[in-house]
Amino acid sequence: MKQFYVFTLLSVLFYVPVAKGQAIPLTEVFNYAVGSNLGGQGGWANQNSGDEVTVQSGSLSYEGLLISTDNSVTFSGGGIDPQLPFDVQSGNTVYASFIFRVTDLSTLTDTNGGYFAGFGQSTTTFGATVWLRTAGAQFNIGINKATAVNENTWLPTNFDTNTDIFVVIAYDLAIGEARIWVNPVPDDLEVETPPTPNGTANLNTTRTSLSRFFLRQDSATETPTIVFDELRVGTTWAAVTPKDPTMSLVDNFKNSFAVFPNPATNGFVNISSASLSPKDIHVYDVLGKLLVKQTISGTRLNIENLKAGVYILKVAQDGRTETKKLVIR
What we know:
Elements lengths: L1 H12 L12 E3 L16 E3 L6 E3 L15 E4 L5 E9 L3 E12 L9 E7 L5 E10 L2 E7 L7 E8 L5 E8 L4 E6 L16 E3 L8 E6 L9 E10 L2 H4 L16 E4 L7 E6 L5 E6 L5 E7 L3 E3 L6 E9 L2 E9 L1
């Protein structure tokens, strides 16, 4: 009995608590002092050394997503890699969403690109990493199951700098698959069943659990200047894609204009409504890249420069907006 007492006392004296991750779903809006370092705030822990990820004023935004608040962070080149621990997840599909903007591509010269964000099983073992590489004056986005350079799935659309891009990633721990969605349409936000991913990676290494989200500053040739905002982590698609509740205010405009012919086959489409006001037209591809921006006074929109495929047509008129699917054959 005496020996047991001594052992117990020593255990108490030398007990070191283990840091516990945040409960999910979690949301990070970077409500910290402008100019401060991210590491050490809000549960973020720094790994490696070098330049810090810093807080800057202002938010990024994505149409249809819950309105952004507070500040954002920025980083580039090589430096410290902050990690945000969360409760260990095993057997689930873990989702994360964020908005990012590339403001300077000039140093991104590595043809393999580099990854700047993703999940971690530990401080050094990663999964569902998001990659960038140059594509002329634009950049390309990829998803990787882990970190191997030659195991990226690159998405077909290229993006411009100084554009806010909304990304959702997922890691399915049951089958070891990483998934990515880029700029999902507003109608797919906060739904029970996720839309089809824009890319998947299911190669070799499998992660058995996830316990953190990280930002990475690898090197000047692999990491461009990035602004990062509105991080959400959860175990469902809906938890990381909350809708802007004000979008419901335009429900009275739903189905108030017609699009025909749809599918379109002759290089044009008619867009009619009860109003005679000009219509602001935007046409996007399925990854959210803007292809057509035009204001029309009548009903006819010229689409002869668009290839056969599926597009997202957004019409704004009299202060109201509606989105429809457009098919071209």
